[in-house]
Amino acid sequence: MFAFDADTAVTAGPDGVSAAVLTDRWNGTAGAVNGGYMLATCLRALALSMPFPDPVVVSGFFLKPGSAGPASIRTSVIRRGRTTAFGESGLAQEGQEVVRATAAFARLGDDGLAFTDGAPPELPPPASCAGVPLESFGLATIASRIEFRAASLPGWFLGRPTGQPASSFWMRFTDGREPDLFCLPLLVDSIAPSVLELGAGSTTLQLTVHLRARPAPGWLACRALTRFVRGGYHEEDFEVWDSAGVLVAQSRQLALLVPR
Amino acid sequence: MFAFDADTAVTAGPDGVSAAVLTDRWNGTAGAVNGGYMLATCLRALALSMPFPDPVVVSGFFLKPGSAGPASIRTSVIRRGRTTAFGESGLAQEGQEVVRATAAFARLGDDGLAFTDGAPPELPPPASCAGVPLESFGLATIASRIEFRAASLPGWFLGRPTGQPASSFWMRFTDGREPDLFCLPLLVDSIAPSVLELGAGSTTLQLTVHLRARPAPGWLACRALTRFVRGGYHEEDFEVWDSAGVLVAQSRQLALLVPR
To answer: Which of A59, A144, B196, B244 has a Cα at 20 to 30 A from B31?
Structure first.
């Protein structure tokens, strides 16, 4: 079984409360469980009771840091419509809620009006790109699960922040798992924050992910971008394009700056 | 009292349930109550129990159309942190939930690291701009509450959709109410959808609003943009810049295309 599927597995229990075990294999640089990983786990718990197969939008609020260990996920169906169903979940550890996630599920198609203003980032082929050496990530075990390749190494990583909080890169699971809708909320939150290029650290407060199409197998081409930093907050936008050149996810988070 | 304040007023009741009366003064083109208006009302109900004054992010899911008339708003505090508090509210009419809103409140400042990649839209002064004639909006009573001025009238309005779902314009309340954080979730949802320029209509499924700074008095300069339409869904991004040239709100919604 692939790491993502094993580590986001949920067991349905009574009264709409599922059980999960968060692992330490998706930790960020601060050694805390990645927020996107917890959001993806919430989404899998919600999927147990949703009458449609595809999450189309999920909003997660990160209430406190999560940690490796058991978690309970309370889920409820808010409304079942004819084409869209809405659900909510709350992931708790040791009696305290850690993530509150709300989502809409439907059936994604690709018919009807289509319009695209944008294109995947222009990147050299993955084989010609640089990967960041794993050992440099210290506590960030997530770097062993998800592979990144970019045209050049990030400025912050080289000790020379560029002052430009924007980047583009390839991404895939290291164990060969192909992308699907359920892993996208993890992937959009899995890179080091763009504000590192401004010399700042960051912790996510809220993350909204739009799931726009089922991704084709292969490398994902991604863009991350922060445009506004002010009063201790910044947003971070993320786009994921699949190997067929289709935008499959768009996300935005509001995050708090933290000292480095 | 200004229309916005009167029409989003909430009365605290027992067990965290507030009472509100939605009016028909904020209807969109289809004659339904505007989603942003309901979201702003939820935010006012949440403010009653939040220990911090400023909403910094709110996510609303629109479960079914709202209508003019009484509404009950159930609110709960999800978590009170040291600097951030999280709350949830559900607005219901006739026993059915219409909007589920989750928000984080804090205290917005303007100190610390600042970075801006972007600028307000370049627009002629409001006095040199065109306003859309009110009577052309039919059922859209919201057009009497909020004034829009743009360098030229929208293509869809003139019967010639431009094929470009993007626009910029000035915005303010017609009755002279100055903008604050609480009205921004309404304002970002108050214009006709950008996909009208593609010949399509739209209904909002989910809306996330980041409140980034307390707006200065005066006209707000705004940008609306849809970049991706596919499989019956589109996103719409919205930026609001105040009269001091500060970005005060950034929003994104996921919406369903509807036939026109």
So the answer is: A59
